[in-house]
């Protein structure tokens, strides 16, 4: 067990909470000032603070899969600007080959100075509604190279010494479908960076620049020590798991995600050798995004009191094959890479389940499903609507899965149907949970979520990113898998048609579509579930009478009572 020497425990705790609170204050600034539904409601953004070397010192309680990518993005900024970083500068990037993840995620960096001393950087990452390209939303799975996906921004000064580069900004806005929406969200990023900068200067003034730097080092050492101590309690060894993405959206699949997790005195190694090569569609991730998914998975398993910063990253080593779906080579398309990140999290959790059997849940819905709806009005103006629909968590070792919640890698929220309807382009006719969709187990998986949408305009392009149709969310410890995701045109109508999991289609006025997320996997043997819990699920409409008997061995009478004798016989026969 490692021990950490902290010079002044009280000062350290005050600083630790202050800098973490400051990162959350940045996130609140984005949330309150953003213009787009995708950011202000669905919360597809992140905020963090870095030291002068680009090390993450604090991150907001936002999107985990963004935040582990910040060190690579900071490195790209240093490579481009080196010693020419000045007070009043603001840097942008989104290029996946130069520190970014996919083009809609635009990073904003604000260097923070006290006098002539660089204190660090305020950083925000926002998934913008649209950054151009052939498909509305800029995340079409069917894109085959990055040039089709939108505007690429290498590390570039947006603001130099306090002066906006208006020509550069106009160039960006001219290449997107909703320029004022992007401008508004970009301004929210600048406001959040200002909040972070003011807070860092206040901390440096309070403690002095030298002590401020010492406290940062202590904070990173603290996170590293806590993580190493947590790993020391695990049984050393190598643990493997293989998961899959159904297909690449262009007809090829399945796509293998394989991980070998090795725990030792040196820390944890995640070796992804054996994972699929990069694909022709837009599912390809960056190396930094793959690392980020690994960090998020372990962080979700361990205690939440370990601060998430660059100290947390130190015990990790990675083996990520080049030109694989986890580390695509330019000019591979990246727009839909989020799906790969969610599956990496599932694979790493699957590998760690034997190590932390009391902490790891069964697989959830496979990550929020993204539905981008593009409309071009008679005046030629574009509207892009995003429905980021989260389904459920898998069952946990000691309780049921959670319904209607985002994957731990995403931390998004479901968009209220009223907000999507207010533009007048679409209508939702149904939204809810589906019974019998959570994987059976001693602890039941979370339920699938569905939405029924009708198009109200003459024509709308619809791009859907979903998965877990063929490779269902896995159960653990004898639990059953969850149910598959679905895309259905004209549901329950004469023209009902089952679509692929990643379609791009044009819908006309009156066309109806049903989207169903996957249900979460179960945990533990289903026939060991407390019959009273099964009855409660039946009364709540989460499980039908038929499923109670078939999947749990619990016979519920027509007047909603447990038939104790019939249940005992049924479970006895199974045992």
How do the helices and strands line up, and which of them pair or pack?
Elements: H1 9-33, H2 37-40, E1 45-50, E2 56-59, H3 64-67, H4 70-81, E3 90-93, E4 105-114, E5 117-127, E6 156-160, E7 163-164, H5 166-174, H6 179-207, H7 209-232, E8 237-245, E9 255-264, E10 267-271, H8 287-301, H9 310-313, E11 316-319, H10 338-352, E12 369-376, E13 382-389, H11 417-421, E14 426-433, E15 449-455, E16 459-465, E17 486-489, E18 497-498, E19 504-508, E20 512-516, H12 531-539, H13 545-552, H14 564-574
Parallel strand pairs: 10-11
Antiparallel strand pairs: 1-2, 1-5, 3-4, 3-6, 4-5, 6-7, 8-9, 9-10, 12-13, 12-16, 14-15, 15-20, 16-19, 17-18, 17-20
Helix pairs in contact: 1-6, 6-7, 8-10
**Any idea what the radius of gyration is?**
24 Å
Mean pLDDT across residues: 96
Helix-and-strand structural type? alpha+beta
Count of helices? Answer: 14
**Sheet having the most strands:** 7 strands, antiparallel
Report the span from N to C terminus. Answer: 44 Å
Pick out the low-confidence regions. Answer: none
Cross-sheet strand order for the largest sheet:
2-1-5-4-3-6-7
Strand content: 15-25%
Q: How would the global form be characterised?
A: globular
- Could you tell me the number of beta strands? 20
Share in helix:
25-40%
Describe the protein.
- The chain has 575 residues and is α+β, with helices and mostly antiparallel strands.
- It is 30% helix and 22% strand.
- It is built from 14 helices and 20 strands.
- Helix 1 packs antiparallel against helix 6 (179-207), helix 6 packs across helix 7 (209-232) and helix 8 packs across helix 10 (338-352).
């Amino acid at each position: 067990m490692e021990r950490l020497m902290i010079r002044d425990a009280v000062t350290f705790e005050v600083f630790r909470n202050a800098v973490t609170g400051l990162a959350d204050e940045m996130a609140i600034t984005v949330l309150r000032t953003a213009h787009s539904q995708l950011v202000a409601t669905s919360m597809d953004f992140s905020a963090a603070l870095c030291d002068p070397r680009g090390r993450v010192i604090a991150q907001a309680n936002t999107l985990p899969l963004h935040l582990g990518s910040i060190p690579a993005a900071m490195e790209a900024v240093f490579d481009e600007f080196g010693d020419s970083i000045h007070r009043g500068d603001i840097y942008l990037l989104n290029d996946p080959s130069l520190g970014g993840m996919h083009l809609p995620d635009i990073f904003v960096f604000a260097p923070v100075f006290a006098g002539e001393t660089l204190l660090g950087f305020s950083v925000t990452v926002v998934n913008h509604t649209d950054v151009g390209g052939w498909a509305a939303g800029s995340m079409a799975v069917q894109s085959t190279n990055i040039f089709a996906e939108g505007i690429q921004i290498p590390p570039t000064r947006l603001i130099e010494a306090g002066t906006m580069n208006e020509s550069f900004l106009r160039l960006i806005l001219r290449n997107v479908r909703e320029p004022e929406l992007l401008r508004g969200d970009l301004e929210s990023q600048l406001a959040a960076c200002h909040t972070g900068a003011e807070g860092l200067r206040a901390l440096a003034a309070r403690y002095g620049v030298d002590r401020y730097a010492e406290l940062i080092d202590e904070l990173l050492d603290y996170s590293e020590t806590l993580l190493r101590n947590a790993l020391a309690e695990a049984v050393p060894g190598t643990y493997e798991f293989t998961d899959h993405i159904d297909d690449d959206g262009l007809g090829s699949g399945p796509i293998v995600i394989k991980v070998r997790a090795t725990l030792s005195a040196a820390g944890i190694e995640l070796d992804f050798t054996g994972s699929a090569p990069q694909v022709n569609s837009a599912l390809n991730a960056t190396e930094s995004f793959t690392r980020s998914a690994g960090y998020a998975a372990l962080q979700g398993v361990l205690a939440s009191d370990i601060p998430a910063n660059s100290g947390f990253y130190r015990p990790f080593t990675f083996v990520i094959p080049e030109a694989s779906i986890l580390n695509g080579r330019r000019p591979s398309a990246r727009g839909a890479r989020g799906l790969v990140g969610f599956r990496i999290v599932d694979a790493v959790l699957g590998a760690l389940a034997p190590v932390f059997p009391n902490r790891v849940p069964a697989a959830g819905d496979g990550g929020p499903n993204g539905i981008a709806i593009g409309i071009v009005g008679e005046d030629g103006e574009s509207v892009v609507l995003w429905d980021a629909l989260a389904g459920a968590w898998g069952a946990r070792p000691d309780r049921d899965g959670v319904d209607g919640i985002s994957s731990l890698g995403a931390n998004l929220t479901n968009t209220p149907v009223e907000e999507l309807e207010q533009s007048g382009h679409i209508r939702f006719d149904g939204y809810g949970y589906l019974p019998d969709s959570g994987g059976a187990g001693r602890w039941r998986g979370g339920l699938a979520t569905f939405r029924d949408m009708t198009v109200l305009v003459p024509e709308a392009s619809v791009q859907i990113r979903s998965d877990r149709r063929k490779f269902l969310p896995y159960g653990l410890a004898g639990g059953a898998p969850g149910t598959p995701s679905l895309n259905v045109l004209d549901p329950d109508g004469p023209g009902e048609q089952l679509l692929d999991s990643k379609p791009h289609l044009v819908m006309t006025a009156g066309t109806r579509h049903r989207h169903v997320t996957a249900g979460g996997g179960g945990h533990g043997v289903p026939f060991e579930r407390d019959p009273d819990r099964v009855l409660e699920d039946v009364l709540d409409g989460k499980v039908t009478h038929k499923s109670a008997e078939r999947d749990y061995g619990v016979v519920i009478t027509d007047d909603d009572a447990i038939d104790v004798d019939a249940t005992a016989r049924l479970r006895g026969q199974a045992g």
